[in-house]
Write a sequence for this structure.
């Protein structure tokens, strides 16, 4: 099946809509982003989609390809297409759809903020630079999870987000974990409280879809487990909240 | 409209864990009630136990024992991931769990005679 | 699930891991050759060890099951909030009562 056309079904519309079929010639080393771009430039200029760097650095092109959330610029058609040479493209799951393949990322980043996924400086600037040896366990834990660029693939893959719209989600919690392990941060108590609620880290049921699909090989499942442990010991020692 | 993400082994594990838990939660009050018939004397408990000789009841018991073993082994997996930070090869772990459940179910059937 | 519920859930899980292992082993041993009330009661009657063990077992279950059901109901149905929590608290009490009733029944019978 190296020659012949690719049958591409693309979601058109918003929450309600339908799949529209296109036929795109197969080319060597074609990526799914190449396919979407060709459709939009050559066949239907009204198709909306996102991309930016097209080299696997920014995460803007994330969408669901044949049921799997991934970056289209880093997905080869030869690997993703079905046996019959078909592609089905949908916007990321668990996000409000703006149009076609474009989703509204607002809630995703709101949850990032709600989980205290931001650095909280001390009241006064420190007297000197913080000394943070890279080999310390805390820094290693933070470094293992720090490369997240907020692409939303994990959030799309997460079943608990699908079941509980208020669940903070893997990305926000993963970022919170990196900050829990940041010795310079002064907002730890508030951060742990933020991820301890009924929609917090405890909701993770270890499906590990996030870890499985993360294009940067981050394991949010284990970051979330770290948060669970932190809260567990805190509750055991000092009572909750 | 939106199809779910391609199902991962962890999803299967969580689903089995959840369904076995629900089954046990439903069964448990019945179990307590059955045992409490002993309050009316051994004969009362015996007459209840008599129905457990029915093949259908035996089969259900076997399933319940399997549900218990399933829920426990998958629960131990969760505890290992959350508290011991075990990085697992999920499919291998699940295969091990399934083997344990099968062994328990078989042991029950062989002993229940 | 809040942090407090999580604590209760995981601790009861650890208790149950041990209790269920013992219980399964006991079942497999006890049913060999058929099970009668006399067999069960001969073991449990006046047996303080059994009584204490199963009391702990019942207490752990009374925490573990309702919290687990709470997760399932909140995620798979649209029911949540104080009414759900109240109902599940009642379930917990019911399990505790029924369970202790059974434990006492086989202790005194």
């Amino acid at each position: 099946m190296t020659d012949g056309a690719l049958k591409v079904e693309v979601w058109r519309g918003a929450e309600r809509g339908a799949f529209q079929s296109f036929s795109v010639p197969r080319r060597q080393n074609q990526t799914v982003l190449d396919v979407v771009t060709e459709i939009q430039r050559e066949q239907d200029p009204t198709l909306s989609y996102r991309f930016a760097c097209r080299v696997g650095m920014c995460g803007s092109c994330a969408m669901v390809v044949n049921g799997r959330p991934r970056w289209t610029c880093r997905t080869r058609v030869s690997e993703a297409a079905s046996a019959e040479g078909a592609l089905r493209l949908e916007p990321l799951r668990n996000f409000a759809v703006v149009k076609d393949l474009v989703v509204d990322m607002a809630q995703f980043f709101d949850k990032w903020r709600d989980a205290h996924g931001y650095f909280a400086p001390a009241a006064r600037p420190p007297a000197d630079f913080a000394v943070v040896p890279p080999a310390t366990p805390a820094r290693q834990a933070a470094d293992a999870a720090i490369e997240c660029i907020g692409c939303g693939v994990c959030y799309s893959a997460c079943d608990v987000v699908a079941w509980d719209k208020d669940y903070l989600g893997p990305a926000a919690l993963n970022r919170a974990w990196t900050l829990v392990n940041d010795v310079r941060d002064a907002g730890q108590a508030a951060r742990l409280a933020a991820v301890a609620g009924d929609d917090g880290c405890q909701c993770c049921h270890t499906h590990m879809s996030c870890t499985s699909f993360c294009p940067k090989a981050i394991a949010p499942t284990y970051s979330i487990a770290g948060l669970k442990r932190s809260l567990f010991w805190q509750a055991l020692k000092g009572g909750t909240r | 409209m939106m199809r779910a993400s391609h199902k991962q082994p962890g999803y299967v594990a969580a689903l089995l864990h959840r369904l076995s838990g629900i089954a046990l939660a439903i069964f448990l009050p019945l179990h307590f009630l059955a045992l409490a018939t002993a309050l009316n004397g051994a004969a009362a408990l015996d007459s209840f136990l008599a129905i457990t000789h029915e093949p259908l009841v035996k089969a259900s018991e076997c399933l319940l024992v399997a549900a218990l073993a399933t829920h426990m082994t998958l629960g131990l997996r969760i505890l290992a991931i959350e508290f011991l930070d075990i990085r697992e090869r999920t499919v291998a772990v699940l295969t091990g769990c399934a083997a344990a459940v099968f062994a328990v179910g078989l042991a029950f059937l062989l002993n229940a005679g | 699930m809040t942090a407090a519920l999580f604590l209760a859930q995981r601790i009861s899980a650890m208790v149950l891991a041990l209790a269920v292992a013992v219980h399964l082993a006991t079942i497999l041993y006890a049913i060999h050759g058929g099970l009668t009330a006399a067999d069960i009661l001969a073991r449990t009657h006046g047996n303080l060890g059994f009584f204490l063990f199963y009391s702990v077992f019942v207490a752990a279950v009374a925490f573990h099951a309702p919290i687990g059901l709470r997760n399932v109901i909140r995620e798979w149905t649209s029911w949540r909030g104080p009414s759900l929590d109240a109902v599940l608290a009642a379930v917990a009490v019911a399990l505790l009562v029924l369970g202790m009733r059974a434990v006492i029944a086989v202790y005194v019978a």
Q: What stands out?
A: The first helix of chain B runs from residue 9 to 36.
